[in-house]
Amino acid sequence: MNKLCLDLTNCYGIKKLQAQFDFSSGSTYAIYAPNGSMKSSLARTFRDVTTGTEPKDRYHPNLSSSSKITDENGRDLPKESILVVDPYDREFDLTDRTSTLLVNRTLRDEYAQLLIEIDASKKKLLKALGEQSASKKDLGREISLTFTNKDDNFLAALLSINGQLLAQVGAPFADVPYDTIFDQTVLEFLETKDFRTVIAD
Predict the structure, then answer these.
(1) Structure pTM?
(2) Collapsing DSSP states into helix, strand and coil, what is residue 28?
(3) What is the model's pLDDT at position 88?
(4) Residue 79 contacts residue 50 (beta carbons within 8 Å)
(5) How far apart are CA 161 and CA 178, in angstroms?
(6) Beta bridge partners of 76
(7) What is the structure's pLDDT at 125?
(8) How far apart (Å, rounded) are the C-alpha atoms in residues 201 and 198?
(9) Hey, CA dihedral for 28, 34, 35, 38, is it positive or negative?
């Protein structure tokens, strides 16, 4: 493929975009633009191609949408040739497809090894936390929800509290079982209207 041709209409806020990217003299394009300039909308449109999903308009879902992503000969871009990586996705998984698309073999191997080491360290940490807290809960999910409001962002949650952990002196509640404090029945009771009313009074 020497050219990538885009013809997009009403795709997640992109009203109209017709563009060609010429790869005959290079293999990379960098798209740089301020926030709100539809970079994420473009990525989401490409993701739709990989899943066979029809795009739609983010603000006016009733509008007719279309996306044509082809090569210089008008052939549709195969979904197997597209890889969309979410920004700041520190748990991005390595698959055969990503390995194929990462061109430099040395970097690819280093990347794969780093992911293996990160995953091993994560499992080791979660095991130690489980033993320390005597908890039966999914602690990776608990930590992620507590510090990022998402249930699948464990590593980002750790990074967000790294400074606090390094500065903390002692751990006064280290011997208290986590499930005793965060018992599901108690948590549900704390959310009831009657309890909140009594606390407010």
Answers:
(1) 0.44
(2) coil
(3) 47
(4) yes
(5) 18
(6) 70
(7) 93
(8) 5
(9) negative
